């Protein structure tokens, strides 16, 4: 299965946070799951850390890079097609990071691993 990790799921999984549902952790830990992390999620993480809304155990740039590498998670860049797909999305909620991730999922067709109630409303595959 190809899976795109929502920002909060990536953070919860790496930090072994109790908010991560066991079922999502099992999907992520499955060696047959091909994992992706959006550039938008990296951007969101860095912004939240810079604003003091997120505390990480080390510099967010080094932390993200190290954990992508250690966990064999593929970076998913934002392409022109992803940006243009953003225009096609219904305006269900305002979070631009979630919306670009949904646009990426519409173009690339992974399952989004999320605990966000809004993402499934965009008619993308979720777990």
Keywords:
single chain; 127 residues; alpha/beta; Rossmann fold; four-stranded parallel beta sheet; 6 helices; globular
How would you sum up this structure, described in words?
With about 130 residues, this protein is an alpha/beta fold. It is about 50% helix and about 10% strand. It contains 6 helices and 4 strands; from the N terminus they run βααβααβααβ. A 4-stranded parallel sheet has the order 3-2-1-4. Helix 3 (about 40-50) packs antiparallel against helix 6 (about 95-110) and helix 5 (about 80-90) crosses helix 6. The longest helix is centred in the C-terminal third of the chain and has 13 residues, at about 95-110. The protein is globular. The relative contact order is 0.21.
Topology:
Blueprint: E1 2-5, H1 7-14, H2 22-29, E2 34-38, H3 39-50, H4 60-70, E3 74-76, H5 80-88, H6 96-108, E4 111-113
Parallel strand pairs: 1-2, 1-4, 2-3
Helix pairs in contact: 3-6, 5-6
Task: Sketch the major β-sheet.
Answer: 4 strands, parallel
Classify the oligomer.
Answer: single chain
Terminal CA distance: 11 Å
Estimate the helix proportion, in percent: 40-55%
For this structure, what is the CATH homologous superfamily?
5'-nuclease
The radius of gyration over CA amounts to: 14 Å
């Amino acid at each position: 299965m190809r899976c795109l990790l929502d920002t909060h799921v990536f953070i919860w999984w790496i930090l072994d946070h109790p908010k991560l549902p066991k079922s999502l952790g099992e999907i992520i830990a499955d060696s047959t799951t091909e994992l992706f992390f959006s550039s938008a999620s990296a951007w969101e993480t860095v912004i939240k850390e810079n604003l003091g809304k997120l505390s990480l155990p080390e510099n967010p740039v080094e932390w993200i890079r190290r954990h992508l590498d250690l966990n064999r998670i593929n970076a998913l860049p934002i392409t022109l097609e992803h940006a243009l797909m953003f225009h096609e999305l219904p305006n269900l909620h305002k979070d631009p990071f979630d919306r670009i991730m949904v646009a990426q999922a519409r173009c690339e067709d992974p399952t989004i691993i999320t605990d966000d109630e809004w993402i499934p409303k965009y008619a993308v595959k979720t777990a």
